[in-house]
Amino acid sequence: KDRTGSSRQAIKKHIEEANPGKKWANGTFLKVLKDMVAAGDLVQVKGSYKLSPEFKKAAAKKAAPKKKAATKKKTAPKKKKTATKKKTATKKK
Prior knowledge:
By secondary structure, the protein is of the alpha+beta class. It contains three helices and three strands. The chain has helices spanning 8-18, 26-39, 53-63; strands at 6-7, 42-45, 48-51. The longest helix has 14 residues, at 26-39.
């Protein structure tokens, strides 16, 4: 477990891998980080960033209602095997 948080480079690399085709300019990326720290979503620890405890709680609350009750699968009714009738042998005259 990383107790010191994630570096700017690691966060940017993760975002770019998660969203292929989108490139973040350094200025835009740094502004977003600063805004998240100001909003209280991230906590800056030395040169790294961690999710704030409040943000973790909010994320957990959002994830919890998404669970759906397990749906029971309807089993197809079993086909009854019909007894094969034996044909009686015809008598020869």
